[in-house]
Amino acid sequence: MNSVAIVGGGITGLCAAFRLRQQKVPVTLYEEGERVGGPIRTLCENGYMAEYGPNTILETSPKIAALITDLGLDPRRRDSDPAANKNYIVRNGRMHPLPVSAGAFAATPLFSLAGKLRIAAEPFIRKPPVSDDESLADFVVRRLGREFLDYAINPFVSGIYAGDPAKLSVRHAFPKLHKVEAQYGSLILGQFLGARERKKRAEVAAPQAKKVSFDAGLQVLTDTLHVQLGSSVELHSSVHSVEKSAEGWTVTVLANGREERRNHSAVLFTAPAHKLASVRITDGEAVSLAALGEIEHPSVARIVLGFRREDVADPLDGFGFLVPELERLSILGTTFSSSIFANRAPEGHVTLTSFMGGCRSPELANRAPDELFERAAQDLKAVLGVRGKPTYQHHALFPWAIPQYNVGYGKFMDLMAETETRHPGLFFAGNYRNGISVGNSIVAGQEVASRVATYCSSDTLNQAEVVL
Ligand SMILES: Cc1cc2nc3c(=O)[nH]c(=O)nc-3n(C[C@H](O)[C@H](O)[C@H](O)COP(=O)(O)OP(=O)(O)OC[C@H]3O[C@@H](n4cnc5c(N)ncnc54)[C@H](O)[C@@H]3O)c2cc1C
C-alpha cells in the first residue's frame, strides 16, 4: 500500500496523521509553509508568552483528552484558572458578567426587564423557523428576542466566528442549537432535558467545558505531533493537483521549488477551503472544488498588549470581555490572557489579547499595526481603565481567518460529501467542514483517520492492488 497523502499540516492534518500511523497506515503530510500548526503558534518574547492565534482548546469531547494522554502530554497540560469561567459583555461602556444562574439572570443589568421577560418566555414560543436554512439572527429573534441577539449572540458570534449573525446559518454554524429546537421545541428546556443525552455521548456543553493549554502554550501540542510524525511531514510542500491513477491517486507537489509527482493510496484534504478551491483534481474528467472559493473568510487582526499591573484598574477576574456591535468600539473582544493561565506575563505585568475586524469591519483588520495598537489601547482604557504605555505589543494579521458557515453553506457540505462518494479515496476534514474550533479539528482529524484507515483496509483497495 502507498502512503496516504495528507494535504495541510494544521491541527486537523496532524491529528489524522498521528492516528493513522498508530493504525499502521503510512502517511505523508504535505505542508506548504515552513512550520506545522496553521494559526497555532506561541511566541515567547521579553518575558511574555503570547499566543499568535488561538488561545485555548475547549474540551467538549473525550477525544481531546485521549489525544493529549496518548501524546504523553498530561504532565504538561494546563487547565485554565477557575476564575476564567467568568465572561463579560460590554453594555453602555461597562463590563457586565454573563449571568450563569437564574438569580444572576434576574439581577443582571445586561438585559432590560422587557428583554428578560422575552427570554424567559422562550419555552412557550411556538413560532416555526422562517426557512429551512435560517440565519442565526432570525432564529434568535424568533426564540429569544432582539435584545438577546444584540447583547448576547452578536458579541458571542464575534468572539467565536468573527462572524455576522445575520449571515451565519444556525443549521450549519450551530448545529446543536438547531437540533435542540427540533427535538425539544425549546432551547431552555433542551438545556435541561438534553443533559442526559450529552452525558451518554460523554460530551460536555461549551459553557461547562474545560479550557486547556500547555505549560509552554498551545504550540506544545502541534510541536509534539510534529516530533511524533518525524519524516512523514514534508514542509515547504504545496499540493496543487491530484489525479486518479492505476495505483490510487497521484499527487503533484511543489516541494522547495521543484515539482514532484507522488503515488498515494488515498488523499485527505485538510488545507483551508479557499486553498482547496484551486487544487486541480482529475478522475477521468475534471472534478471541480472551485465553489469552495465562495466561502467567506473575513480578515482578523490580533493585538497583544502587555501592561504593568498597576496601570490596569480592572481586576481582570475572568476570561475576557466581548463587545456588541451597538457599542461602537474598534475591538471585537479581549481575552485576559495572563488571568487564564500562569506564566503568560512577567511578574507584576498582565497580558491582554484583543481582536479586530471580522465580518463586522473587515477593512479595519488590514490597517497599519500602529493604528491598531492605538485603537486597542483606547478601547482598553475605556473598558478596563488601562493607563500608561504598553510594556509589550505584538500584532498579527489573518487575511483568511475563519470560514463562515453562512446561510446556503449546505451546498459546500454537499459538494464535499458528493466528491467523497463519487471518487473513493478522497477525504475532506478541517475547520471548513467539521466546526471551526481547535477542539472540533482535533476530533475531526481523529474521526477522519478512522474512515481513511477503513478505506485503506477495504477489499476494494486491496483487490485493486492484487489486480494491478
Ligand atoms: C486569530 C484566530 C484565533 C483563533 N482562536 C481560537 C481559539 O481561541 N480557540 C479555538 O478553539 N479556535 C480558535 N481559532 C480557530 C482555530 O484555530 C482554527 O479553526 C483551526 O486551528 C483550524 O485548523 P485546521 O487544521 O482545520 O486548518 P489550518 O490550521 O488552517 O491548517 C491548514 C494547513 O494547510 C496548509 N496548506 C494550505 N494550502 C496547502 C497546500 N496546497 N498544500 C499543502 N498545505 C497547504 C496551511 O499552510 C495550513 O498549515 C482561531 C483562529 C484564528 C485565525
Topology of helices and strands:
Layout: E1 4-7, H1 11-22, E2 27-30, E3 42-45, E4 48-51, E5 57-59, H2 62-70, E6 77-79, E7 87-91, E8 94-97, H3 102-107, H4 113-120, H5 136-144, H6 146-160, H7 170-173, H8 175-184, H9 187-193, H10 195-200, E9 210-214, H11 219-229, E10 233-234, E11 237-245, E12 248-255, E13 258-264, E14 266-269, H12 273-276, E15 280-283, E16 285-287, E17 300-308, E18 320-322, E19 331-335, H13 337-340, E20 349-357, H14 362-365, H15 369-384, E21 392-398, H16 410-422, E22 426-428, H17 438-456, H18 459-467
Parallel strand pairs: 1-2, 1-14, 2-10, 7-18, 11-15, 14-22
Antiparallel strand pairs: 3-4, 5-9, 6-9, 7-8, 11-12, 12-13, 15-16, 17-20, 17-21, 18-19, 19-20
Helix pairs in contact: 1-11, 1-17, 5-6, 8-9
The structure holds flavin-adenine dinucleotide.
Residues 7-13, 30-33, 38-40, 53-58, 238-239, 270-272, 275, 300, 302, 398, 401-402, 430-431, 436-439, 441 line the site of flavin-adenine dinucleotide.
Summarize the entry for a quick read:
The protein has 468 residues and is of the alpha/beta class.
What can you tell me about this protein's structure?
This protein has 468 residues and is of the alpha/beta class. 35% of the residues lie in helices and 23% in strands. The strands form five sheets. Strands 8-7-18-19-20-17-21 form a seven-stranded mixed β-sheet. It has a five-stranded parallel β-sheet with strand order 10-2-1-14-22. The chain has a five-stranded mixed β-sheet with strand order 13-12-11-15-16, with no helix packed on it. Strand 18 and strand 19 form a beta hairpin. Bound molecules: flavin-adenine dinucleotide (FAD). Flavin-adenine dinucleotide binds next to helix 1, strand 5, strand 11, strand 17 and helix 17.
